[in-house]
Every structure is written in structure tokens, then in C-alpha cells.
Amino acid sequence: MRITSALAAAAILTLAAACGGGGGGAQPSSAPNEPVKINFLSLAWQKESVAANKQLVDEWNKANPNIQVTYVQGSWDNVNDQLVTQFAGGTAPDVIHNDSPALAGFASDGYLLDLKDKLPAELKSDIPQPAWDTVTFDDGKGQQGMYGVPFLQESQVIIANKKLLDASGARVPTPDNPWTWDEFSAAAKKMTKDGNFGVAWPMKSPVNKTLNLALNFGGTFFQTADGKTTVKVGPEEREVLQRIHDQLYKDKSADPAALGQGTADPLPAFYKGKFALLPAGVYLRQQVAEQAPEGFEWVTLPAPKGTSAQQGAVSQTLSIAQDSKHPDEAMKFIAFFLNGPNQAKLAKGDWLLPTSQAAAADPAMTAKENGWDVATASAKNLVVAPFLKVNGFDEWKSKVATPVLQEYFANKITIDEAASKLVEDGNKVLERYQR
């Protein structure tokens, strides 16, 4: 999930202060006639998102004098290290904001409450099963449980310079009829002229983007047999990798200057028309909407499709600490916080996709302005990311996949060499997690 360093530093201090002296942990049972007190650790960081979070907490507290929620500001930068310490010390917040990949380890260690028997029927039915799959993990004893409520997700889209798109004569894709990858490549070639490029692929952090898009062709990158998970880089996994590489070095339709950049770094060049198409997460629309120069016209296009339009999904989640003294009250708060209208507010604040079907139908989520209609429609293509269930994925990602894919996209190694490194070095990492 997204992180902003400038805000993170301040948030770390805030979280540390909140957790000091027992202030951030699960509260002891309240005295008679005193309200139940619940701590809610939020990782919201954008101004709009923090405001929405705090507004909903205030609404809850005014309507529920007997269950009072304290908002605790956390940071994506250090939340999991912080939680390890808090769980071990019995001081974890009652309600915990995180993302789904982090839940597996905490669930198997017994730190999170299994919510499957506590979920209100209305909340359970409002969120589709593929989203619940992102929070369903083994409890370490062979039983499957639900360890969070998924509420925001990210998909990949294409942000396009409308003037250059229209001038190219390329068909404008829609959610019901997206470009195929072949059409996408052809459109990028049409837009490559006069020293400018059709597309830019910022690949400083290439793993999540390429692995999620790999599902367009059924590429999973991992396989499990006889209880053992290994890395797989076959024809399906190579499709997207090869197609991006071809845009860079065969078609020469991709701007090489963007390769080493982070997701938002190419935006100044995008505004100047240096390239026409920018594949990115849906949240990047916010920066374009707020920062694009006056008169710059842009549109949101759906991501291309292969044999399917599927993409991998990771969810932001709310969980309850196993040691919480007030799990029932915590669940009541979560059910309020993540109802349809409130999810719509949270999604607008974060420029992400709500899991709630009621929220997705909210007029604010289907407006054409700033591409919300295309962004929200993309949610139907999200399925549980295969890597979400892989123990050791984070180390494989940081130590193996990121440097290998960076080398491949920089044309320093072949796709065969990349595949060999991903598999051989990757399996050495995964082996340590399966002993």
C-alpha cells in the first residue's frame, strides 16, 4: 500500500507517543457505568483520508456514549514492527488498520481474532467473496479464519493525455471493452513520434505491478504441491514481462527515462507531453487532478486484458487484536465504520476502490469526473493475489524479485536469465520458510 515518507516520520512519533504508557494498547475492562474504551490504530495518511477517518470516529462517539473510540495515528512505514512489539507486550490497539499481506503472520502467531463468527450479516453480504478471500488465512493449526474486514483495494489503470490519445486515432478503451495487450502496444506505437513516447513504465518498484498484471494471462509466479510452495516462471508469467520489455526495446514506444523512477516521478514529463500513457494504480489520479497544469486534459482508461482482465488484489483491512478486552464493541464500531456510505467516504479520501457493493454504487464512485467510473468498474476484475498466501513473499520480493526485474527491464539480462534467478534464488528464500 502507499506510503508518504514526509507524513510517515511525523506519524511514527505520534504512534510511539500514543503507545507509550499503555495509551495505545487494549484497555482493561471499564469500571461500572464508565464507557467502554477502544483504541483504533489508523494508517490513513492523505489529508482527505485522515479527515474522513476522524469524522467517522467523531460521529460514532457522539452516537455511542457507552463505547468511546480513541483515534491513534499510525504509519505504513513501521506499523508491522510496531505491532510485533505491542502484541508481545499485550498493548496492541483493539482495532488495527493494516493491509492483507501482513495478516497471515499475525494470524498464525495467534495475535488476531478470527472474525468469521462475529461478522454482522449485513457487512458480510455487502462485501464480495473475492475480497474476503484476501483476509482468509490459516491460523497455524490447520484451520482457516477471517482475520480482518477488507475495505479498500487498488487496481491498475492507464492515465492518458487526452489530446495525444485523440490525435492518435486509436480506439478509446472502455471497462466493457478494454484494449488487448496487442491493441495497447499498437496504440503506444501510434503515439510515439517527434521525440515523444507512447507510454512510460516507472519500474523502481516493479514487483507488485507486474505480478498483479501477470494474472491477465494466468501468471501466478508461485505453485504449491504436497504442501510446498515454489516459484514458477513459465509462459504465462513471461507474457507481461516480455510485452513491457518489447515496448522498451523492440517497439521503442516506452520512455526509457522513466524506468528507474517511482510511480509519481514521471508526472512532470507526462504533463509536458513527453509520453501519452502512464499505467499506474488508481490512487495516482489524485495527484494528476490536483497538480496538472491548467488546461491539461487527461482521462482514465482501464488496464489492458490478456486471456482475461483479472488483476491481483490486496486489501486494506481492519482487524481486532486477540487480546482486546472488548471484541464485541470493537466489531460494532468496525461495522459502522465500514458500512456502505462510510466506505464511499473513505474510498474518496484515499482515491481507492471500496469493497462494499453499496459504496461502489454511490454516485460519487461512478462519476465520470477524475475517472471514478472507470476506476470503480475495474474492481470487478480483482481476484485474490496469489502471492498473498506465500510465506516468505516479502523477502523474495525485496531480495530477489525487485533487483532481478530491475535488471531485466534495464536490458541487462535476458528473460531466460531473469526467470532462472527468480526461480532458483527465490526457492532458496522460500525453503527457509517451509522447514
Structure description:
This protein is an alpha/beta fold and 435 residues long. Helices cover 43% and strands 17% of the residues. It contains 19 helices and 16 strands. Strands 2-1-3-14-6-15 form a six-stranded mixed sheet. A four-stranded mixed sheet has the order 8-11-7-12. It is globular and about 75 Å long. It starts with a helix and ends with a helix.
End-to-end CA span? 29 Å
- Summarize the main sheet: 6 strands, mixed
Q: Count the helices. How many?
A: 19
What strand order characterises the main sheet?
2-1-3-14-6-15
Residue share in helices? 40-55%
Envelope shape: globular
| Low-confidence runs | 1-29
Counted beta strands: 16
SSE diagram, text form:
Elements: H1 5-19, E1 36-42, H2 47-63, E2 67-73, H3 79-89, E3 95-99, H4 100-108, H5 121-126, H6 129-133, E4 136-138, E5 144-146, E6 149-153, E7 156-161, H7 162-168, H8 181-190, E8 197-199, H9 207-214, E9 222-225, E10 228-231, H10 235-249, H11 267-271, E11 275-281, H12 285-291, E12 298-302, E13 311-313, E14 315-320, H13 327-337, H14 340-350, E15 353-354, H15 357-360, H16 363-366, H17 372-377, E16 382-384, H18 393-409, H19 415-432
Parallel strand pairs: 1-2, 1-3, 8-11, 13-16
Antiparallel strand pairs: 3-14, 4-5, 6-14, 6-15, 7-11, 7-12, 9-10
Helix pairs in contact: 2-14, 9-10, 18-19
